[in-house]
Amino acid sequence: MRTSKPITLTLGKQQASIDARLATGAYESASEVVRAALRALDREEAALDEILRAKIQEAIDDPRPSIPADQVFAELRAFHQAFR
Questions:
Q1: Residue 18 located in a structural domain
Q2: Domain count, the chain
Q3: Largest CB tally within 10 Å, which of 7, 27, 52, 69?
């Protein structure tokens, strides 16, 4: 039994990208190209998630004292005022 379902896509300018890949023979169908693109997107999103998690953990582990929110917003207001 089929685990996927057929869909229709309107690609616009990206159609040329699929056509070029098919012309090289690297892929046998547009479906293969789209599946490869989605796998690449999944890897990219996973890498970005990993980077963000590391940055958040780095901030959590930062031994410096926290800055009060009032001070942060005051500094941001002053910063923006300087450019007006």
A1: yes
A2: 1
A3: 27
